[in-house]
Design goal:
Keywords: ATP-binding, Hydrolase, Iron, Iron-sulfur, Metal-binding, Nucleotide-binding. It comes from Novipirellula caenicola. This protein has a domain at 15-166 and 236-263: P-loop containing nucleotide triphosphate hydrolases (Rossmann fold). It has helices at 36-49, 66-70, 117-129, 149-157, 171-186, 217-225, 237-244, 248-254, 256-267; strands at residues 13-14, 20-29, 54-58, 87-89, 98-102, 136-142, 162-167, 191-202, 209-210, 229-235. Helix 1 crosses helix 9 (256-267) and helix 3 packs across helix 4. Strand 7 (162-167), helix 5 (171-186) and strand 8 form a beta-alpha-beta unit. The protein is built from nine helices and ten strands. With 269 residues, it is α/β, with parallel strands linked by helices. Helices cover 35% and strands 22% of the residues. The structure holds adenosine-5'-diphosphate. Adenosine-5'-diphosphate binds at residues 29, 32-38, 65, 197-198, 233, 235-236, 239-240, 243-244. Adenosine-5'-diphosphate (ADP) binds at residues 29, 32-38, 65, 197-198, 233, 235-236, 239-240, 243-244.
């Protein structure tokens, strides 16, 4: 069993790295491909839609997919204060542009990056402290799946409000999610809750729901582990095509099926 500790939310303060943010939220998963980046981007957009100032940091340095999902590109400039200028997501949501930083903006898309521990540590700290985030209510961080290197670096650099763990409902994925939860615990990052992604598919033709990967496994596991369950997101073709076409923000704005569970999760953070 995972022990949950009642962690008070860290007070608004300048982090050691000079970040002006009220809450830093890490989105993690036990393994890749479960929709962690999709959920991280969706959470950031939902929090922003609720009127908060939000930044999105893609710390999944091994497979930075946030730029692709949101259709963002370009090289971040360095300003006169030697701070990296994030790439801004502007859309017609009526909200101010959202700053985004990702290793994907700094390396060629088909280039593999071989990371050594100190380099990883350095780049995460740079993303946190040397980026011109401005003043934020939330910084949502898309973590690399699995291992604890980046989580450890983060926990040392800034006070984290906590982590959201994304998983799919099948048993093997849940086993990996438990490892992710235990990894966050080891580095003293509280667990804000679990999100079940790809939970059931509603056939648009017949209206019948197919539980392709099962359903409800994450909720049951969350109860067992005594961590909050934040909600489930169905398998949604629009979400997949939206992500592939760099239109995730647009799809979420238009599609209530996928938006609502994430909105509910964001409200509970
Ligand atoms: P991860 O960050 O865990 O590797 P991604 O967020 O990159 O996963 O998602 C992997 C793929 O699955 C992407 O093509 C994404 O568009 C798709 N995807 C994620 N969640 C859903 C969903 N609920 N329904 C349909 N496709 C999804």
């Amino acid at each position: 069993k995972v022990e949950t500790v009642d962690h008070p939310r860290p007070p608004a303060r300048l982090g050691q790295v000079g970040l002006r943010v009220k809450s830093v939220i890490a989105v993690g998963s036990g393994k890749g491909g479960v929709g962690k980046s999709t959920v991280a981007a969706s959470l950031a957009l939902s929090l922003r839609q609720m009127g908060s100032r939000v930044g999105l940091m893609d710390a999944d340095v091994y497979g930075p997919s946030i730029p692709h999902l949101l259709g963002l590109s370009g090289r971040p400039a360095v300003n006169a204060q030697k701070k990296i200028e994030p790439i801004m997501l502007s859309d017609d949501s009526g909200q101010p542009p959202m700053p985004v930083i990702s290793m994907g903006f700094l390396v060629e898309p088909d280039q593999a990056v071989i990371w050594r521990g100190p380099m990883l540590h350095g780049s995460i700290n740079q993303f946190l402290g040397d980026t011109n985030w401005g003043e934020l209510d939330y910084l949502v961080i898309d973590m690399p799946p699995g291992t604890g290197d980046v989580a450890l670096t983060l926990s040392q650099a800034v006070p984290l409000a906590g982590s959201v763990v994304v998983c799919t409902p099948q048993e093997v994925a849940l086993l990996d999610a438990i490892k992710a939860i235990s990894m966050f615990h080891k580095v003293n990052i509280p667990i804000l809750g679990m999100v079940e992604n790809m939970s059931g598919f509603m056939c648009p033709d017949c209206g019948k729901t197919y539980d392709i990967f099962g359903r409800g496994g994450a909720r049951a596991k969350a109860e067992e582990l005594n961590v909050p369950f934040l909600g489930s997101l169905p398998i949604d073709i629009d979400l997949r095509t939206g992500g592939d076409e760099g239109q995730l923000a647009k799809v979420l704005a238009e599609n209530t099926r996928s938006r609502i569970p994430i909105e509910a999760a964001a409200k509970s953070l």
